[in-house]
Amino acid sequence: MSAHALHMQRALELAKLQAGRTGQNPSVGCVIIDRNGQRLSEAATGDGGRPHAEQLALANIPVGSAVGGTAYVTLEPCRQRSTDEASCSQRLVDAGLAHVFIATRDPHPLGSGGMTRLREAGIEIDLGILREDADQLYADFFASVASETP
Ligand SMILES: [Zn+2]
Q1: CA 127 to centroid of ligand 1, rounded, Å
Q2: What is the pLDDT of residues 4-36, one digit of tens each?
Q3: Model confidence pTM above 0.90
């Protein structure tokens, strides 16, 4: 398994540990690696669905330490929040990450489009690493989104 897959596997592990405790929100895992390949931080979605995993992972590290680094996220980082908080895609851009690996896309209207936003900010995106595992983890979430969205 490649180093990238190992980091994503860890992110999935974190997400699975929180599964069932995040309310309506999917349980997401996030691992952040600095530009030298050192693990800086990791997190999963908080109890009840907040904070989001990326938000928690980025909150734990010194400002500037993730510049040029890589994030591994099990689900597409949100484009927009239902509250007026900054979205995860915005936070990843602000942290200066160079590369984001995403296991699978978010079909939710507020989540979807985060990938485009990251790409527009010049971040390199890699979609689909360990996607099958992620799709399995989010099967119920995907089904609930599909039933809500006309
Ligand atoms: Zn988010």
Answers
A1: 17
A2: 999 999 999 999 999 999 999 999 999 999 999
A3: yes
Residues 112, 76: contact at Cβ < 8 Å?
yes
In one-letter notation, the amino acid at residue 54 is E
Give the Å distance between the CA of 119 and the centre of ligand 1.
Answer: 16
Residues with a catalytic annotation lie at 54
SS3 sequence of 99-116:
EEEEEECCCCCCCCCHHH
Compute the distance between CA of residue 75 and CA of residue 107 in angstroms, rounded to an integer.
10
- Domain residue extents for the chain: 3-148
> What Å distances lie between residue 137 and 15, 20, 58, 75, CA to CA?
8, 11, 23, 10
pLDDT at 149 over 70: no
Residue 69 to residue 40: CA distance in whole angstroms: 9
Architecture of the domain made up of 3-148: 3-Layer(aba) Sandwich (3.40)
The pLDDT of residue 70:
98
Cα of 25 from ligand 1 centre, angstroms: 10
Residues at Cβ < 5 Å from ligand 1 ion: 52, 78, 88
